[in-house]
Amino acid sequence: MEKLEHALWIVDVVNALLGRPVKAALEALGFHVAAEHGTVIPNYLVMVMLIVAVLTVLSLIIRSRLSVENPGKLQIVFEDALTAVLNLLEEWIGPKGRNYLPLIATFGIFILFGNYMGLIPGLMAPTSNINVTLGCAITTWVYYHFHGLKEQGLVNYIKHFAVMPGVPIALAPMIFVIEIISHLSRVLSLTLRLFGNIFGEHLVVLIIASIVPFIAPLPIQFLGLIVGPLQAFIFLTLGAIYLTAATHVDDHHGHGDDFDFNDADRSPQPQAH
Q1: Cβ distance 250 to 164 under 8 Å?
Q2: Confidence band (pLDDT; 50, 70, 90) for 6?
Q3: Considering the entire predicted model, what is its pTM?
Q4: What would the DSSP string read from start to end of 98-129?
Q5: Is 153 within 8 Å of 147 (Cβ atoms)?
Q6: CA distance 138 to 229
């Protein structure tokens, strides 16, 4: 897969500045670094660093210009985006949904920026690398299990994997095994769904551009404008669904790996405010 990646000037610059210190630090910790063509820091990590830098600068700009009476356009855009995510969390989880806003919204913004970076000449989409999507999936998986244990307690949380309404208690061991496999598969599901869509899109663009350059890839790249936010929305929505199932004490549903709109009828109802 690395062979499909082309050299990026910004990656060369970052490695020229930070490659040697990073390599020395890793080797001091006992890690052997095989720098291919002098590249110690891979493309996708440079892109992740760039997203973090851009979002940090944007956040500082917005913070310095915060206004209640006369908000700027950038502030309005971010406020509307965060309000939409907050409404989603409070609808599914209830008033406590606000507590999970920082991670869920951060993932949504990060994935959106990551998906769109692949449309900018000279850059690449970090979400087209499976290491990035795997990291996002593992973080989400650990996060919702941690809060499930925190909200329900160890015994009740383990119990909800095996005991379900209307299911004979004799089937509890089998249900428990099925649920464990289901939860483990969520890491794979989250990883491959995001990676496959973004990598597949850029692979198609690369193939078409190699045959008919410039004009022919434009329709696929235009489709990327739709796929980018859609995949970000799906990822954060699945995160909200998994948190709902994990943090509601009496909830025994929502265990599917894929987002099914029919499951909305079986999920916890929005709590009154």
Answers
A1: no
A2: low
A3: 0.82
A4: GGGHHHHHHHHHHHHHHHHHTTSTT---GGGS
A5: no
A6: 21
